[in-house]
Write a structure and sequence with these properties.
GO terms for molecular function: DNA binding. The chain has 196 residues and is mainly α. Helices cover 58% and strands 10% of the residues. Helix 7 crosses helix 9 and helix 7 crosses helix 10. The termini are far apart.
């Protein structure tokens, strides 16, 4: 018996292939190509990320990910969420951010009611998330423990109605709290700090 996995982006094509294969006595259909895909690669190249996501992958991680990150990514993709390696997320958001924030003038952005729900510290945390900082980087820069940062991040996500950090970054851009140039400056500052 030959086992076949059907993968195609058109439902009618999948159905046609399935009917053909199931009518043949020496073939069986192992699956209909509706699997969620998490790409795992050593190549940190934007064009690979874009191609994988365009092809329907639900996530893209690098092989240097920690085991717990890989397992969390698999679980996230299994329930329908999307996952992208943090370094890649930053670059994708920087590219996407060029199109964000242009729709509203600065004054209107500042009037967003989501900002009114945040404490001053939570606003600092949202700005830090917007810069793409990890919990460890936020803790170091704001002189907080990582567990405190994690608590603040959870509260910020809940208050602004963001499902995850990616949505929080988009919100920070949308509210005018950060911009692509600020992120480039932050990366430059980090490299300078590391040299000293």
């Amino acid at each position: 018996m030959i086992s076949v996995l059907i993968v195609d982006d058109q439902p009618l094509q999948r159905l046609g292939f399935r009917m053909l294969l199931e009518s043949n006595p020496d073939t069986e259909v192992a699956g209909g190509g509706r699997s969620r895909i998490l790409m795992l690669t050593t190549f940190d190249l934007d064009e690979y990320v874009h191609a994988a996501l365009r092809a329907g992958a639900s996530g893209f991680l690098l092989k240097d990910a920690y085991p717990e990150e890989l397992l969390a990514g698999i679980r996230a993709v299994a329930v329908g969420d999307a996952v992208i390696a943090p370094a890649l997320t930053r670059r994708l958001l920087d590219a996407f951010a060029q199109h964000l924030g242009d729709a509203l003038p600065d004054g209107e952005r500042a009037a967003d009611p989501r900002l009114d729900t945040l404490t001053e510290r939570e606003r600092e945390i949202l700005v830090a998330i917007g810069h793409g900082w990890t919990n460890g980087e936020i803790a170091e820069r704001l002189v907080l423990s990582e567990s405190t940062v994690k608590t603040h991040v959870g509260r910020v996500l809940a208050k602004i109605g963001a499902r995850d950090r990616v949505q929080a970054v988009i919100c920070a851009y949308d509210l005018g709290l950060t911009r692509p140039q600020a992120r480039a400056e932050t990366a430059r500052d980090r490299r300078t700090d590391n040299r000293q």
